[in-house]
Each structure stands twice: as C-alpha cells, then as structure tokens.
Amino acid sequence: MKGIATCEDCPIEVTIYRFTGSQGFFSVPKKWCEKCDFLVALVKKNVSELGLENKTKLTIRPWFPWFWQPLLVNLAWHAPILIVNGELISQGIVPKKETLIKVLTQNVVQTTEFGKV
After folding, report:
1. pTM of this structure
2. Are 43 and 60 in contact (CB under 8 A)?
C-alpha cells in the first residue's frame, strides 16, 4: 500500500503470513484466501487511519514457504497469522478491528515513551 514504510528502524513491525491462491503443489480454497485478503486490507486501513504509515513496517509472507518460522517462534501454524513486534496477535481468524487498533496504539506508546522495546 502506498505510504506504508519499509524502514528497518520502524517502531512497529507487523508480519502477516497468508495463504495465496497456489501454494506450490496444491491450491488453497478461495474461502481461506478471503480471510487472508481481509486481514491484509484491515491492517493497511487501520495503520493508515491511525497515521502510523511512517512508523510501521508491514511484511506480508506466503504461508507455505514460511510456515516453519511462526511455528517455531510463536507456536502459530494456521494462516492467516498476525504478528506485531514479535507477539502473536491472531492465527486462523481475522481479529476484531478494536483489537488491532489497541495492539497498534499500545506499541506506539511503548516505543515512543520508553524507547524501542
């Protein structure tokens, strides 16, 4: 999305592991892709609405080649997986907008008042 930072020093790092239509050897049902598409859109919209474009690094990774990373680090295996600053926020569901806003604003307060955690 235009405006979301790609900086390495951003105080908020959001990573989404998502299904894509084709995961190598098999196809993913369209219903699963819709959840992932909705999560990506929701994160982008909330980052924009909160004015955090220059403070947020958004990384979107396909689930299949990267499934081992959230599994080993956060014990998360079911896409879509949402991780904010290394903390698992949700897996397999799209979190409520209020939950996402709360997580993003808490991370802004922590990083601006106390330095990068």
Report:
1. 0.82
2. no
